Amino acid sequence: MIKAIFFSTFDVNEGPKVLHQVPADAIAPYSSSTQTPLFHFPSLSPYIIPRPEFCSRLITFCTPTHRILSQPVCLQSLSYPRNAYTFSIALVLESSTPFASYATVTLKLASLLKTLEEQSRFLSRDVSAPNTGKIYALCEILLEDLNNYCESMIPIDDSNTLNIKLFPTYPPPPPLYPYHVPLSTVRLDTLTDPNWDLTMLKVLPYIDGVNSVKQISLLADADHKLVRKAIEHLLYYGCLLLLDIFSFSAVYAPTPKITAFVEDTEMQEECARYIALPTDGIKQNAQLDTVSGLQLVELYLALRQGQNVKSFYIEHVETMDRVDVRRFITFGVIKGFLYRVHKFAIATNPTGRRKRDHKLKSRQKSRTAAVMEAPTDDPDSDSQVLDVEQYLDGTHCFDEICTELMMSEQELTSRLKAVGDVQIISR
Fold first, then answer.
1. Which residue from 245, 290, 69, 144 is spatially nearest to 152, judged by alpha carbons?
2. Angle in degrees, 0-180, between the axes of helices 293-302 and 265-275, rounded to the nearest 10
3. Which of 63, 119, 209, 254 is the most exposed place for a label (fewest CB within 10 A)?
4. Cα-Cα-Cα-Cα dihedral sign, residues 221, 224, 230, 235
């Protein structure tokens, strides 16, 4: 929130001087005023109206309680006293307020006022008393509109209009990997526009909470880097959540946040509606056979490390038969009271049978150059085992390895057996 806006210039007789300020007396109060200013202007004036070398640059500095944003402008002309006219319009924020979007506003204001001054001497010819006239009205409307509506449109004259909008700043999106599964939190089809990026339009139909990032790029027949950039864009604006690849061999366990689900009956009802399967098949108005809140709590608390989803489903088949298993797991992950237990592989003592001397390698290279060998699907083949070995340092989960090598977890397990001594860690 903007605490104040003020316009200051360099007076040839008095030096740096505040001409207009909103609210009144917020920066440089009159001698008869009892209001305490937001900061001491004379001590900070060298930064607000600096030397010409520092003009036309965004300047931001803080006091113990406030942050000041300004871009001083110095115009050189023989028509001005001392052949120069220096001014600055500044925004005052609380020191803890994120200021990235306000910096853009400051730059645009300074650019507009500079243009107006060069065109018609809009600033230097203003002889209005302090806190009156067009400049003061501009500051007053701007402060009220940005604080209340985050945008402002102010007509300056017949040829110029000020249009400013505060765009929110979001934190950077989480890291995105090929094995992540994006899930939309809004109806993306209602937001699309024919003028959107072509890659984005190709990607949207495949964002369904099932396909991974790499699968989406393959289904959309688009470059992986462009697909990743499009998904990161949607992540930045909060249109997507990231999940892991669902499989019945995956292991999930509750987090300490499960207590919030146990105590919140509204969340339990929301979960029951989300995961319930229609009793009359997949119909628009089919009746839902929902699970009670107590049953849901018992089911989520039954998830534990060492037990995959398949074993859990078989153990609770009577209740889970009325539940969409994928949605059951997804709901817990989204709400934060379930987490995925990933598997990591570490090669402790790889066998030496894949180590070849220089002579054998040179023979194979010459033989390959002469005759193209047919590819093999044997999991024990050296080429496929070597592909797996690069991921056996304990930093790559099974989801990542399976996605990169385009194989199932069962195929990966068979290849790990060919590597030698491999230790699998779940965490």
1. 144
2. 80
3. 119
4. positive
Rounded-to-integer distance, Cα 251 and Cα 342, Å: 7
SS3 31: coil
| Helix ranges, 150-238 (H) | 198-203, 213-219, 224-236
Q: For the segment 249-282, what is each residue's pLDDT rounded down to a tens digit?
A: 999 999 999 999 999 999 999 999 999 987 655 5
Give the separation between CA 192 and CA 199, rounded to whole angstroms.
12
Instruction: State the Cα torsion 262-266-269-274 to the nearest 10°.
Output: -100
The string of pLDDT tens digits covering residues 319-356 is 998 899 999 999 999 999 999 999 999 988 754 444 43
Beta-carbon neighbour count of residue 282 at 10 Å? 7
CB-based burial, 30-49: b 16+ in 10 Å, e otherwise: eeeeeeeebbebeebbebbb
Give the Cα separation of 409 and 97 in Å (integer).
48
Tokens of 180: 């992540």
pTM reported for the whole predicted model: 0.72
Question: What is the C-alpha separation between 233 and 270, in angstroms, rounded?
Answer: 29
Q: Is the Cβ–Cβ distance between 304 and 324 less than 8 Å? A: no
Q: Which two tokens stand for residue 404?
A: 């990169």
